[in-house]
Design goal:
Blueprint (H helix, E strand, L loop, with lengths): L1 H10 L2 H35 L14 H9 L14 E4 L7 E4 L3 E4 L4 E4 H5 L7 E4 L8 H4 L5 E4 L9 E2 L3 E6 L7 H19 L5 E6 L3 H6 L1 H7 L5 E2 L7 E3 L2 E3 L20 H12 L13 E5 L12 H11 L2 E5 L7 H9 L3 E5 L15 E6 L4 H14 L3 E6 L7 H5 L4 H5 L1 H5 L5 H9 L7 H22 L1
Length: 471
């Protein structure tokens, strides 16, 4: 009777029955679409998720995204997500960086890192990534000289012959290695950033390509400050190595710069200076105790350009003003312990834009630094050493030479307005080799000492104040 009564009741209200059926069908459709959307979004998230090595500005970031980036750990949305996966971040102008977050075998003959977890699980979805681990990725000519490495999940790998307990940090030299500016700017500052961003308080092995014996000898102490493990020279290896994980590439924040917003521990260029001080010590100069401010005159010899043609006269004027002048002529085999000790105990430094001014990193913060800027080098001078001075919190002054102080006037004539008076117009399409040769290699300087004396006098007064405070 109950069934009959119910049937009659439903039959008496067909409109309600039809609405209920329609609502039920719609619910099924919506749930099905939502499930599809969820699964599709999840798949997209997993496949596009990269190592959170990426460092961008905070604009538009959620607090959760900032927190993840600050931790600088791989994004793992689920505990079941594989820990050993190849991940690459190619979002940066200066560098790419890739990692295998699990056991890996390196085959030196193929320049390939194999992800062992994927191979052991016989996964059929093969991942292949390639990278040139050098932080000048925008510069095609330079990157053409850099070794390329492959990271892959299979299908096969050679057996491991040498086992390491520490993870690998892999990068290339090459490029401009041998120039002190580039050794620091393209090598050690990016290495410092990478280590402090990805490997704080962790052991790792430096695995380097294009490694020269003289380079290792010159920077031996600095390299050992990063890692106590013997360096692996990739190009000389003929056996396989296995590591618990591997990272390929070095992070860069642009020229001569460490952005505290982009490092988890808010490191700056001053922290890099402290790192250098830890490595080379404050250095005890063999000179007698100073009774007057000491000034380092960065000098160049030979036909490299940017020479101060009246350097002897400049030295006399500088000493007349009151400075004790030390001539710095850095060479390939110059001891960095000696250089650091001498410069760190000084109060001021002057020099023409060029690689030698990289030694300003050895100055103590609040020291005085004057960069002499040749014709046509205003932009690159600020990019390299103006930025260094600001990052080091030096008391910085620029001396921009006049046309009459440039040797280019003799070559091109005073009336050549394009080369001498409007270099930006000549450079608007970029720095070709020809333009670089003109402004950075063919140009020497004869200082107007009457004009430059004003800069020196001002620097001397500041150096006296600094010496009274810091010694």
């Amino acid at each position: 009777m109950m069934k009959i009564n119910v049937a009659k009741k439903k039959a008496s209200n067909p409109t309600m029955a039809l609405m209920g059926l329609t609502l039920f069908v719609l619910m099924i459709i919506v749930l099905g679409q939502n499930q599809y959307f969820f699964l599709a979004s999840l798949q997209s998230f997993i496949t596009s998720t990269s190592h959170t090595i990426s460092h961008h500005s905070d604009h538009g970031d959620t607090s959760k995204q900032k927190s993840l980036r600050a931790q600088d750990q791989p994004l793992e949305p689920f505990s079941s997500a594989p820990k050993s996966i190849i991940r690459c971040d190619r979002s940066h102008y200066f560098y790419d960086i890739c990692s295998i977050n699990g056991p890996t075998i390196f085959d030196p003959f193929e320049s390939t890192f194999y992800d062992m977890d994927s191979i052991n699980k016989n996964e059929t979805n093969i991942i292949v990534e390639k990278i040139k681990p050098y932080p000048r990725k925008w510069e095609n000519f330079t990157m053409g000289q850099i070794k390329e490495f492959t990271l892959t999940t299979g299908p096969l790998s050679p057996p491991c012959l040498i086992h390491h307990k520490a993870q690998a940090l892999v990068f290339c030299l090459g490029g401009y290695t041998g120039n002190f500016f580039h050794d620091i700017n393209d090598g050690f500052i990016p290495l410092f950033i990478t280590v402090n961003s990805l490997f704080p308080n962790q052991d790792f092995i430096l695995v380097i390509s294009k490694l020269e014996d003289w380079w290792v000898q010159k920077y031996k102490d600095l390299l050992q400050s990063f890692s106590n493990y013997p360096i692996i020279n990739i190009d000389k290896e003929n056996v396989t190595h296995c590591f618990p994980s591997a990272t390929l590439g070095l992070m860069s924040h642009s020229f001569m710069n460490i952005d505290p917003k982009l490092t988890p521990s808010s490191k700056t260029l001053i922290d890099f200076h402290k790192f250098l001080a830890t490595t080379y010590g404050t250095g005890q100069s063999q000179l007698q105790p100073q009774s007057r401010p000491r000034l380092i005159l960065a000098s160049l010899d030979g036909n490299v350009g940017h020479l101060i043609l009246n350097q002897d006269e400049l030295r006399v004027v500088t000493e007349q003003i009151g400075f004790e002048v030390i001539l710095l002529k850095p060479r390939k085999n110059t001891s960095l312990h000696e250089s650091f000790g001498l410069i760190h105990s000084s109060h001021a430094m002057i020099g023409v834009h060029g690689a030698a001014l990289t030694h300003a990193l050895f100055l103590r913060p609040s020291s005085i630094f004057i960069q002499i800027i040749p014709i046509g080098a205003e932009g690159v001078s600020d990019l390299c050493f103006g930025r260094l001075a600001r990052g080091m919190k030096l008391v910085y002054e620029e001396y921009k030479i006049g046309v009459e102080e440039s040797s280019l006037m003799e070559k091109f004539g005073k009336e050549n307005s394009l080369v001498l008076k409007h270099p930006k117009a000549l450079q608007k399409n970029g720095w070709s080799k020809e333009i670089m040769d003109i402004y950075l290699r063919e140009q020497n300087i004869k200082l107007d000492l009457n004009r430059f004396r004003i800069y020196l006098a001002k620097a001397f007064k500041k150096a006296q104040v600094y010496m009274a405070i810091k010694g």
